[in-house]
Amino acid sequence: MTFTKLMATAALTLGLATGAFAQDKTKVGFVFVGPVGDGGWTYEHNQGRLAVEEEFGDKVETVYVESVAEGPDSERVMTQMALDGADLIFTTSFGYMDPTINVAAKFPNVKFEHATGYKRADNVSTYSARFYEGRAIQGHIAGSMTKSNIIGYIGSFPIPEVIRGINSAYIHAKKVNPDVQFKIIWAYTWFDPAKEADAAKVLIEQGADVILQHTDSTAPQAAAQKAGNVITFGQASDMAQYAPMPRVSSIIDNWAPYYIARTKAVMDGTWTSTDTWDGIGPGMVGIGEISDAVPAEVKAEALEMKDKIASGEYHPFTGPLKKQDGSDWLAEGETADDGTLAGMNFYVEGIEGDIPQ
Amino acid sequence: MDLSVINPILLLAALMSAATPILLAATGELVVERAGVLNLGVEGMMIVGAIAGFIVAVNTGSPALGFIGAAAGGAVLSLLFVFLTQVALANQVASGLGLTLFGLGLSALMGQSYVGVKPPRMADLDLGPLSDIPVLGRILFSHDAMVYIGLLIVLGVWAGLKFTRAGLVLRAVGENHDAAHALGYKVKRIRTLAILFGGACAGMGGAYISLIRVPQWTEGMTAGVGWIALALVVFASWKPWRVLLGAYLFGGITQLQLNLQGAGVAIPVEYLAMSPYIVTIIVLVILSADKSRAPGSLGRIFHASH
Amino acid sequence: MALATPVLAVLATMVFGGLLFAVLGKDPLQSILTIFWQPLFGEFAFYYRPQLLVKGAPLVLIAMGLALGFRAGIWNIGAEGQYIIGAICGAAAALAFYPLEAWWIFPLMVICGGLGGFLWAMIPGLLKVKFGTNEILVSLMLVYVAEQLLSSMSLGLLKNPEGYGFPGSRNLQQYASAHNAEIIAGSGMHWGVLAALIAVIFAYVLLTRHRLGFAIRVTGEAPRAAKFGGVNPARLVLFCLGASGMLAGLAGMFEVAGPAGQITIDFNVGYGFTAIIVAFLGRLHPIGILLAGALMALTYIGGDIAQSQLGLPAAAIQVFQGMLLFFLLALDVLTNYRLRFGAAEVA
């Protein structure tokens, strides 16, 4: 407790001492879980950081630390940024949740933004993207285009975020193609391109002609290209270098609009603690260009679905939907609430296999 | 669950390609250890080879030149290890770990502007009628050139160690460097060459990941393969053919695990993922129970610099 | 000489590291100052100094145990696995009783954590003694087994039931009886730091005063002489592996109960491997390891500051740390000749 006070006092005196010239430049810190060169998750967050710099120019200073381990290292890096006078700190990994809350308690005047978590405080907001909206469009294209009716899915770990994506893709693939079957392989790693390549090859060998991935490397794209006649979707970044085939579209993490808006809010003094879960509409989830390999009418349907999701007219989880065990989940016309979606730990009806425990 | 979707022919074919990076790296390390040196820096040399090969391949448009560049990159990094252990007589375990740390950092710096670049593709080798043989053709004769080069290197190392004078000298140096020295062999020169060879092989193994298996460049993309290669050498009790066997065993369990998942078999993935390591330990115990095969010169490797 | 080379090595690293930073377009002098000066004497040293303890303690604790074995030529390179198992056992012991508050929970965690690491290290130990298997390989293999167990635990058995399905256990920082809190608030001094200091003193006494320490040194320097001297090699193997495993397990347990707080898929951050480097930087000597652990912690903390303040990439810091080790090893040639001379006499 005394330490907390010490920190708070230190921050306060610093704030007072440096306040005069700290005010003209807003300092924004970013804590990254991987290297900015990972070409996926961290890369896209760093693109968001660069967008903030571009937007505000001299009025903003951004700092970042990459490859920060979750746990005490992240807590130290956040504290260091706060001590160095950061006004706003984005912490971009689920595992930074408790450290963010801890540090935020010591620096009540610094604003924190934690990605993908569920704990908030007066100076801690959370934000995440509704990637499942993009998965719905993928599922639609995948279900329409598959000839073998087997769709391969590479998951990282069996966590709600990934399960939500599988369900969303499955529901929409099934809608256009009742015979569709999902083969799911859990890679049990966030990052191992060679393993992703192997998983993709196995799925293709077992008859899949569509590969959906919830891992960030281009390895599955390359495997699909080699196999020919297999389609894939870019993940995290556009992966346009594999367009028009095998990559027929993509889900792009686009953090720039949010980062710019929140930085602006701090500058204007209008920042408040919020829980943001944005999708296609506000632009946090981008759908990469649908290539010509997709039949025109499928493309048109996909774009229509995109517009409907963006406008809020359509929710990817709309009843009637049953859970895998056959029990009712959503009644006709009912849409899923965010709480259930956030903690989703069940497959919808029709998906074979169990979620590993 | 539908086990019939697993095609054993394709599984074996995939295995040959998937095992190539560890096979290359482990064969190189085997030569190094047979010369009496333990280089724990395989992971570092692999990742530097991965980026060096990637850079060369992208800039020249030739994957073949890329692999030559990767071999050079791995060998250059291993020179550092040569200097530390052969000139400065530093501890090999620490030097090797340092090499890995250094290599991971260096490769990331080298690769900064290569993230997201697509490398030129290496075509599969056209072996004509051979690849049309049923079953065997698909398993054995449908790969890229590096798969066969890897096998040739294993063959060469086996023959070289067993039948040539150079191999005899190398083994002599590894078994007893004092005696070898007394016989007039240049212990340091031989070890230096062995380490460079090991570096070159590891570099090519790394490039196989960045140029063929994945293919792309991302930081830390070897993801621990170097450590597995290192284990493989001991698993193989320093015999080239057993390295081959071990590489297929390791790769095979991963392939099988993924195949079973795809077939919808409810397997506890973590437990299957740990099984190659447990199997290795068990095999090791079985091998060591046979006293004649027990790795006898092991202690000497570590004291080789004394 | 023994003192001069590490200082020389640090200076050489600063020069060449500075060159590297200059090549990357950063002010070399400022970079070096940021890494080495800021955490110790900078404006916010009041925060970073305690953090040095937090970062350095597990490194020292693990390295101290490893050094005992390394000195005797027993190579446990699987401390990372023992660290993980120690953390899992310690956390599981506490979570089994959640939310019961009792004084004996933390001591129980210490016992379980240490025992977990000990038993995990006994696998390579017993296999080596019984079958003559290579402990490097077995201990390394067990790291990967432990990592898989860790992810299984975070996703399954130990998953926080109130965590909305996300992986990871309950946070032990919020469980008073299990929390390895700072003994003096703001000092960074938690029980793990204390344990590291005790381990250093214990190892020092063991190596210089005790018969077992003598056996360790003789076995490492002249294995044959040790055998004639009545050293039981099997018992020594078990002792060295067991002790290093226990210390690594304790380090993991203190970490999960304190600074880290919870079991997660990515709980382990490589302390077990970095500790090997620390052991060698510290020349396998207790005091040396203490200093080396502090130095290594300094480069981590200073490195993160340099990243944030100067925009140095994390990879540059990694290269910098690699250089530090290389220079120390290379300059060791000066003292090495003396050691070899001494060793030759013993043999």
What does the model show?
The complex is a heterotrimer of chains A (357), B (306) and C (347). In chain A, the strands form 3 sheets. A 6-stranded parallel beta sheet of chain A has the order 2-1-3-4-5-11, sandwiched between helices. In chain A, strands 7-6-8-9-10-12 form a 6-stranded mixed beta sheet, sandwiched between helices. In chain A, strands 13-14 form a two-stranded antiparallel sheet. Chain A contains 11 helices and 14 strands. In chain A, helix 8 links the parallel strand 8 and strand 9. With 357 residues, chain A is α/β, with parallel strands linked by helices. With 306 residues, chain B is mostly helical. Chain B has helices spanning 8-18, 20-34, 42-60, 63-87, 92-110, 136-140, 145-163, 165-175, 177-182, 187-213, 225-235, 240-262, 269-289, 298-302. In chain B, helix 1 (8-18) packs across helix 12 (240-262) and helix 4 runs antiparallel to helix 10. Chain C has one domain (27-311): ABC transporter involved in vitamin B12 uptake, BtuC (Orthogonal Bundle). Chain C has helices at 4-23, 28-36, 38-41, 45-71, 79-97, 105-131, 135-155, 191-209, 211-221, 223-228, 233-257, 271-281, 286-310, 314-346. In chain C, helix 4 packs antiparallel against helix 11, helix 5 (79-97) runs parallel beside helix 7 (135-155) and helix 8 (191-209) crosses helix 9 (211-221). Chain C starts with a helix and ends with a helix. The chains are: A alpha/beta (357), B mainly alpha (306), C mainly alpha (347). Chains in contact: A-B, A-C, B-C.
